[in-house]
Design a protein that fits this description.
- The protein is mostly helical and 79 residues long.
- It is 46% helix and 10% strand.
- The protein has one domain (5-74).
- The protein is elongated and about 65 Å long.
């Protein structure tokens, strides 16, 4: 299948718009998941189960990153 230059540019723009819409939807879902998790609060693990929550962050320029994970069995354990 051959494309002319204008068709290629038009297709690239169409793909970019589709990608942008997809990224916005993905961001909305992520935000909802975070909000839902905050509303639920901490839930204790089942008996004889260790629960490990994790988090990570990084700078966009790639110079620094970090991860963390608190461990607790009961709300009274603290962090």
């Amino acid at each position: 299948m051959e494309f002319q230059a204008q068709e290629i540019v038009a297709k690239a723009k169409e793909d970019l718009e589709e990608w942008a819409i997809t990224m916005k939807e993905k961001e909305k879902r992520t935000t909802l998941n975070i909000q839902q998790a905050r509303q639920r609060g901490w839930l204790p693990p089942l008996e004889r189960v260790l629960k490990c929550n994790v988090d990570g962050a990084w700078r966009m320029d790639g110079t620094i990153s970090g991860i963390g994970w608190p461990r607790k069995q009961r709300p009274s354990d603290g962090l």
